[in-house]
Design goal:
Layout lengths: L7 E3 L29 E5 L18 E2 L2 E3 H12 L4 E6 L2 H11 L4 H4 L2 E6 L4 H11 L6 E6 L7 H14 L1 E7 L5 E2 L10 H9 L7 E2 L6 E10 H13 L7 H7 L5 E4 L10 H11 L12
Parallel strand pairs: 2-5, 2-7, 5-6, 8-12
Antiparallel strand pairs: 1-6, 3-4, 7-11, 8-11, 9-10
Helix pairs in contact: 1-5, 4-7, 7-8
Length: 296
């Protein structure tokens, strides 16, 4: 069922959103960056979940270890961080939207201060993001783009991202690659495509594998944070030119914008398949260690 046009409401009651106190991001709450514009979070919740193979009905709304679901944990983290004043929740359909609205009404008090807008999901992630960006009001300063299938994000990390993006215009949460990474060579001209080559390698065919310098490799996470005008333009350009981007940083870099890396020392896995769900349930039941001091 298609979603109705995006609208805004009070997160807890569904009443028309009112004003609220706001202050500098990272400085104690309110959701305004140093330039004074309101910040927003685009929360992606409408993925198909095909790789869950039916293990759960909705991975973002499934209770984790008997506690809050992934979406609830993300919303509470943003509310407690004080870095945004608005959530744009990108939903799969009207039925999911209704479930989310009921969920928001049960969450702690800080959530009620947030304005909430809903947007429809797209055929692919980048189009869902674009729909969410389009639903942000004029004057939005920073926008946090976050996959709600990553439920372990913390208020402290959100504040650090706000500071980095406020300075650089774009920032991404990421971690250093620990494994040795090999690249499968691209198929020779006239033979199968590179994707087929990778499949053959996985099936046991011998390949001359290329070593990559691990010290230069970072694994991207979310949130990914940008000046709203910057990423909206970059995502629109990618869509208009038929470019496929698998994360938002790729669109920004493609448009010529540098991005600051914010190193994450804590686990932030994404629920993609049933094994991920079990891992995250274990992690949510385990006390979070203190965040190590930043490496300079």
């Amino acid at each position: 069922m298609p979603l109705p046009s995006p609208d805004k409401s009070n997160a807890a009651t569904g009443a028309p959103a009112g004003g609220g106190a706001v202050c500098a991001a990272g400085g104690g709450g309110g959701g305004r960056d140093l330039a004074g514009g309101a910040n927003a979070a685009v929360l992606l919740a409408g993925g198909s979940g095909n790789r869950m193979r039916g293990a759960v009905r909705d991975k973002c709304l499934e209770p984790l270890a008997g506690g809050p679901c992934a979406l609830a944990r993300c919303v509470v983290a943003f509310a407690e961080s004080g870095v945004v004043s608005r959530l744009v929740i990108v939903c799969r359909d009207a039925a999911q939207r209704g479930e989310i609205a009921k969920l928001l009404a049960t969450l702690p008090a800080p959530v009620a201060a947030l304005e909430v807008t809903y947007a429809a999901g797209g055929a692919e992630r980048q189009f869902s993001v674009l729909n969410g960006l389009d639903a942000c009001p004029a004057g939005t300063a920073l926008v946090f783009i976050h996959d709600t299938a990553r439920p372990l994000i913390t208020p402290e990390v959100l504040r650090e991202l706000a500071r980095a993006a406020g300075t650089a215009g774009a920032a991404v949460l990421a971690h250093r690659v620990k494994d040795t990474i090999k690249r499968v060579p691209v198929a020779a001209a006239g033979s199968a495509a590179a994707g087929a080559t990778a499949g053959a390698a996985a099936g046991g065919a011998a390949q001359l594998l290329e070593d990559l310098d691990r010290s230069l490799l970072w694994a991207m996470e979310t949130p990914q944070v940008f000046r709203h005008a910057l990423i909206l333009d970059a995502m629109r350009r990618a869509a208009a030119e038929g470019a496929r981007v698998t994360d938002d940083v790729a669109a920004a870099v493609r448009a010529g914008h540098p991005v600051a890396l914010v190193e994450n020392f804590l686990p932030n896995p994404k629920i993609t398949d049933p094994a991920d769900l079990r891992l995250i349930e274990f992690l949510t039941a385990t006390p979070v260690p203190a965040r190590p001091a930043r490496q300079r």
